[in-house]
Write a structure and sequence with these properties.
This protein has helices spanning 2-7, 38-43, 57-60, 81-87, 108-117, 128-157, 169-180, 190-194, 196-200, 202-221; strands at residues 12-17, 22-28, 31-32, 47-48, 63-66, 69-72, 161-165, 186-189. It is an alpha/beta fold. It has two domains: 1-51 and 162-220, 2-Layer Sandwich (Nucleotidyltransferase, domain 5), CATH 3.30.420.190; 57-141, conserved archaeal protein q6m145 (Nucleotidyltransferase, domain 5, 2-Layer Sandwich), CATH 3.30.420.190. Strand 2 (22-28) and strand 3 (31-32) form a beta hairpin. Catalyzes the condensation between 5-(aminomethyl)-3-furanmethanol diphosphate (F1-PP) and gamma-glutamyltyramine to produce APMF-Glu.
Length: 222
C-alpha cells in the first residue's frame, strides 16, 4: 500500500487477487485505511477468501444454471477456480501452479473434465461446450462477488481510483469493468504499468523499491 501511495495514487483502492484470496485495501491520504485483523477485514469487505486458483467451485455457489435449469451441484472437491480461469483464458497453464483436485495435469482438457464433475458428470455425458458454460456460470458468480465488495469499500471511503494487481488481474478487469462505464472510476493495472512479473510479486517489488528510495535518501543526506 505504501508503494502504491508513493508511486501511483494517494487516494485509491488497491485490489490484489492472488491464488487463494483477494485483498481490497483502501488508501486514504497516502495511508492504508484497512482494518488490522483478518476477522475485521472479512467483516468490512476488505478480504475475500476467493482467489484465481485454489477456491473450490462449490464454495462460490451450491447451484448454477445448466440447460436453462437451476441445478444443484456437488460439494465435493472436484474443481477449483484455477480450472475456470484456465478454460476461460484468464490464466495460462504455467500460471496454474497449485495442485489440481484430481492430481491430473493442469491443462484445458482435464480442467473441463474436473468442471463437469461438479455436476457429478463427465465429458461422455455432457459436451465440452456445456462444461465451458458451467465455467462461465461460475465465473459470473466470482466476478459479481468481487464487484460487490469493491463497491462497498468505494462507497465507504469515496474512492474512485482502483489499482489492480496479482495473478488474477484479468479477472479483476472483468469484475470491475462495470465501474468504468460511468467514467467515474479509473482502473490502473500494475501489470500494464510495470509488467506481469511485478504484478505477480507486487509486495516483494514494492519492498525493494521502498528500500532503494530510503537508501538513496540517506546517501543524499550524507
Amino acid at each position: 500500500a505504501e508503494f502504491v501511495s508513493q508511486n501511483i495514487d494517494k487516494n485509491c483502492i488497491l485490489v490484489d487477487m492472488g491464488s487463494t484470496t483477494t485483498d481490497i485495501i483502501p488508501i486514504v491520504d497516502g495511508k492504508a485505511a484497512s482494518n488490522k485483523t483478518d476477522l475485521e477485514r472479512l467483516m468490512n469487505n476488505e478480504l475475500l477468501y476467493v482467489g484465481s486458483l485454489r477456491t473450490p467451485l462449490s464454495f462460490l455457489s451450491n447451484k448454477i444454471m445448466f440447460k436453462d435449469t437451476i441445478t444443484n451441484v456437488s460439494s465435493e472437491y472436484f474443481a477449483i477456480t484455477g480450472d475456470i480461469s484456465l478454460v476461460l483464458d484468464k490464466i495460462t497453464e504455467m500460471d496454474y501452479s497449485c495442485d489440481t483436485p484430481d492430481g491430473k495435469p493442469a491443462d484445458k482438457r482435464n480442467s473441463l473434465i474436473r468442471i463437469s464433475k461438479v455436476l457429478c458428470s463427465d465429458l461422455n455425458q455432457i459436451s465440452a461446450d456445456e462444461s465451458i458454460n458451467i465455467a462461465i456460470e461460475y465465473y459470473k458468480i466470482l466476478i459479481d462477488l468481487i464487484l460487490e465488495n469493491v463497491k462497498k469499500v468505494s462507497e465507504k471511503y469515496g474512492l474512485k481510483n482502483i489499482v489492480i494487481t496479482g495473478l488474477g488481474e484479468e479477472i479483476l478487469k472483468d469484475a470491475l469493468s462495470e465501474l468504468t462505464k460511468s467514467n467515474e472510476f479509473n482502473i490502473i493495472s500494475i501489470k500494464e504499468r510495470y509488467g506481469k512479473d511485478v504484478s505477480l510479486a507486487t509486495p516483494s517489488f514494492s519492498v525493494s523499491i521502498l528500500l532503494k528510495n530510503e537508501l538513496n535518501a540517506k546517501l543524499n543526506r550524507s
